[in-house]
Amino acid sequence: MRSLQRCFSNRLTALFPRIEVMTASPWRNTAGSALKARCFADQVAIQSDGGVPSRADPEPFRPHPMSLRFAYTTTPFFPIWRNNLRDLWKRKKGKRLGKGMSGDKGLYWRSKRQKGKQTRTWERGNFPLFKRLPRWPEAHMRGKRPELDPLNLSKLRYFIQKGRLDTRFPITQRHLQDSRCVKRVKLGVKLFNVNDFPFPYKIDIEVASADQSSIDAIRAVGGSVTVVYMEKVALRAHLKPWKYEVLPRTARPGLKMTTYMEKMKARGAIVRYIKPLWLIEEEKRLQTQLRELQGEDGVQVARKMVESREYVKKTILG
């Protein structure tokens, strides 16, 4: 504004030397007053140049980015000390929603804040319906399903690259926990791969489960994946054998786990578990039946099986 006043006073002095021009501006320091002064100066310049607008107008004032005159605070930028740093992350704290009885913006228990007939779940003292019915069909099993500890194949590759896992020897779940590749093995390690990412190292690894992509990626470079069944006590003895004077024996898996181990075998993994007695007897029966069908009297044996409808009977595995 001051530069504009000087420019205006200089032009009036050059045009009308006999008229004394006041240095101080008679208008207030507002945007409208500045616009009026600029328009009046342009008119005087056009009249002095013979009706042609002047092209040599001064450039608008641009403050330096480090100038404290136009900053939000007077704290200096340099030197950088602990007391002149700006907290750019601070924002206004929003409203807390859905926090139940603690806040006035709750959503789930807002009907309980009212009493009597005004509540939406009032049933005249009876147990309300929203408490009688489960939230979903298997709500009682929430938090009770055993979940294995996941291990990404890319993280395993990173630990091998850093030298924290040795590929010359089989990698067990104890090696994964000791190297901190898996922070803590609770029920077993599950190996998985994202987007079929390739794996460049030939390894032999023992885990509790693995998906099809990780098995294919390791077998593509000549490695192998062994799925080992260990119940809770056997897994603890495997991870911390110094806690046992005599190592416990490995338990036999149940029907569901045996079916799962056979599925892992069909995926291409090597499975290792103690077969239950009923499975051994079932395998013997199937082998005997297969030898009979491949023998000389195979046609008659097959005809008897069709007549007795023995082939329709399902095995124990289903």
Automatic annotation (TrEMBL):
GO molecular function term, any single one: structural constituent of ribosome
A biological process term (GO) from this entry: translation
InterPro entries, per the entry: Ribosomal_uL15/eL18, Ribosomal_uL15/eL18_sf, Ribosomal_uL15_bac-type
Any one Pfam family match given in the protein's UniProt record, by short name: Ribosomal_L27A
Signal sequence bounds: none
A GO-annotated cellular component: mitochondrial large ribosomal subunit
Highest rank taxon of the organism: Eukaryota
Assigned keywords, A-Z: Ribonucleoprotein, Ribosomal protein
Gene3D superfamilies per UniProt: 3.100.10.10
Span of domain Large ribosomal subunit protein uL15/eL18: 150-226
Family as reported in the entry's similarity comment: Belongs to the universal ribosomal protein uL15 family.
Name of the protein in question: Large ribosomal subunit protein uL15/eL18 domain-containing protein
Species name: Cladocopium goreaui
